[in-house]
Amino acid sequence: MSDLEETLAFQLRAAGIQFEREFRFFPQRGWRFDFAFPELKIAAECEGGVWSNGRHVRGAGFTSDCIKYNAAALSGWRVFRFTSSMVTSGNALDMIQRALLVD
Asked: How many of the other CB atoms lie within 10 Å of CB of 77?
């Protein structure tokens, strides 16, 4: 797991939110979510390398992610995508809490 994912996992645990890591939502393709809340079909993805030409923002990686996220949407999943600044600022945790309706 990346440092970014570890940070979000720490925040979620501190907030008392249960989650599954590396949840395989589409076994036929081997696709996984970084974080999943399967009972609600909500997922969170950490998108690193946004400012450093990482895999998620280069052509092939971006296209692959689009295919994955579209398949997830067709399967009824809501996928939230977070950059490193969104995780470190607490914005990702806040958004997940709102999505899960956690008080």
From this structure: 19
**Helix or strand or coil: residue 77?**
coil
For residue 30, what are its two tokens?
């081997």
Contact (Cβ atoms closer than 8 angstroms) between residue 35 and residue 44: yes
* DSSP-derived 3-state class of residue 81: strand
Note whether 37 and 100 are within 8 A (CB): yes
- The pLDDT tens digits for 35-94 are 999 999 999 999 876 555 555 555 677 888 899 999 999 999 999 999 999 999 999 999
Count of residues making up the chain: 103
Cα 49 from Cα 66, distance rounded (Å): 16
Q: Number of helices and strands (H, E) in the chain?
A: 4, 4
